Backbone:
């Protein structure tokens, strides 16, 4: 059991592997357990005294108390492997939405390997797969039983609960508060979109409860004149943050295509496009001494923020698409945000994906969230912007109206429209017509449908060869049957600016 640690909480005492007091239980874990202080208090009450070595160390004590049912008690982002020497049993688990990566493989002798990165397994395991979010495997080494510990009703039923804006605001503030636990310097990403802007604003308000002069460090990235910069500056001035902008050149980002695919372990077009500017930003953030950053990832999936949701034919289909997007977060947004930040030694936290918050928002009826023309719903306004209830819940002095009601810009568009045009052109230039004509022969699994996709796939194949590795990737594409084009760029969707 091997572990490389990025120390964020309990810096001096949280070295891994972690052991129980009698050393019978051994743990390696990646992530953060956000309710560890509450759990530590419960453990101390039962034992008389208890001081956690780190946030993850409570996993051991909860295992000793509840066995594999410990997953019902912890909340956070995590992937871990626990070994019980006395019982000779293994417990492997991943958080409900796959914020933290985890892979499992099998070698030619039938041995099971588990790792946070695909690159650790491809040389020894001809068979590899992504460990599913919300799943645990428990038992003897030769008989690990799979089970799903997270399956709320919104995953298989269309919810009927009306939105409560006050409850929604309180739930997100609570999520952000729990994600602020940190023993090192931290900051926040600030793209100028409503999601990251709200997280930065809420974090600032919470920190100023203790220190009225507090200034959150915020960061933006883009080409010169990028659409996101103006909105981010407006938010930074409004909340009084210490704001930095990273302006990148197209050539600098394009030079990193091979490196970013190596870190991402995916060939998905949207993910690669977004990650190249992002990895330049995280490199800069790390140079400032920051080791943890807050992000607005996850809001689009739970509120229906992508522009193609305007084409949803009805509320039931809208909700089912939300469920699909949430279940695939670990293959796209979570994968990108974790791997790009960790490549530079930074932990990225996502309050919108707090389990309790997701459960609340996904339990709100789709009639209250679906964007677009609402003539079919009596008493509703005629037209609704995406993520309306999120914006409305924070309409009271959290953000400037120009940002609060600003329409969605997907990150790869918002950093500068020239970025998409140039990366598509450069990638396409690497693939001949003859090569692309044989794409289905060379890549029968997830056959690339554009030259840009073909180029990324060919780089991935060099680093992670084999059909098994290729199957760990799922491409992010809008719903083609909802009239969406093949290109996943938000700019490609035929939705125009909608005002409050």
Residues:
């Amino acid at each position: 059991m091997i572990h490389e640690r990025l120390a964020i909480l309990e810096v001096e005492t949280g070295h891994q592997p972690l052991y129980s007091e009698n050393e019978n239980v051994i743990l390696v874990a990646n992530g953060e357990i956000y309710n560890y202080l509450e759990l530590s208090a419960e453990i101390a009450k039962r034992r008389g005294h208890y001081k956690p070595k780190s946030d993850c160390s409570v996993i051991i004590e909860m295992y000793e108390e509840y066995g594999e049912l410990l997953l019902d008690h912890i909340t956070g982002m995590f992937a871990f492997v626990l070994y019980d020497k006395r019982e000779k049993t293994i417990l492997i688990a991943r958080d409900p939405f796959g914020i933290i990566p985890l892979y499992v493989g099998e070698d030619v002798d039938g041995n099971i390997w588990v790792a946070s990165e695909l690159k650790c397994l491809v040389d020894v395991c001809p068979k590899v797969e992504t460990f599913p979010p919300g799943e645990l495997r428990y038992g003897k080494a030769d008989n690990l039983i799979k089970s799903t510990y997270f399956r709320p009703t919104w995953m298989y039923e269309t919810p009927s609960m009306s939105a409560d804006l006050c409850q929604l605001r309180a739930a997100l503030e609570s999520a952000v508060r729990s994600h602020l636990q940190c023993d090192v310097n931290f900051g926040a990403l600030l793209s100028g979109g409503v999601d990251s802007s709200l997280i930065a604003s809420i974090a600032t308000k919470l920190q100023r409860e203790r220190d009225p002069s507090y200034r959150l460090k915020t960061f933006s990235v883009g080409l010169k004149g990028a659409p996101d910069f103006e909105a981010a500056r407006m938010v930074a001035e409004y909340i009084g943050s210490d704001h930095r902008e990273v302006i990148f050149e197209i050539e600098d980002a394009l030079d990193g295509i091979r490196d970013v695919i190596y870190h991402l372990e995916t060939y998905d077009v949207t993910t690669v496009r977004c990650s190249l500017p992002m990895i330049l930003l995280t490199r800069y953030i790390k140079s400032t001494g920051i080791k943890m950053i807050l992000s607005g990832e996850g809001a689009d999936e739970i509120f229906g923020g992508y522009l193609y949701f305007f084409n949803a034919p009805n509320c039931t289909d809208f909700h089912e698409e939300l469920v699909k997007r949430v279940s695939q977060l670990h293959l796209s947004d979570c994968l990108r945000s974790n791997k790009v930040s960790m490549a530079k030694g930074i932990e990225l936290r996502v309050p919108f994906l707090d389990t309790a918050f997701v459960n609340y928002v996904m339990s709100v009826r789709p009639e209250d969230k679906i964007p677009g023309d609402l003539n079919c719903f009596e008493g509703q306004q005629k037209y609704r912007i995406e993520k309306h209830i999120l914006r409305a819940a924070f309409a009271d002095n959290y953000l400037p109206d120009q940002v609060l009601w600003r329409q969605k810009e997907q990150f790869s568009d918002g950093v500068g429209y020239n970025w998409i045009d140039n990366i598509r052109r450069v990638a396409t230039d690497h693939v001949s017509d003859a090569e692309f004509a044989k794409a289905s022969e060379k890549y029968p699994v997830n056959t690339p449908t554009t030259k840009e996709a073909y180029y990324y796939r060919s780089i991935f194949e060099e680093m992670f060869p084999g059909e098994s590795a290729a199957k760990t990737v799922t491409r992010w594409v809008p719903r083609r049957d909802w009239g969406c084009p093949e290109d996943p760029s938000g700019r490609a969707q035929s939705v125009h600016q909608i005002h409050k």
Q: What stands out?
A: Residues 496-500 have pLDDT under 50 and may be disordered. The domain at 18-151 is CATH 3.60.20.10 (Glutamine Phosphoribosylpyrophosphate, subunit 1, domain 1).
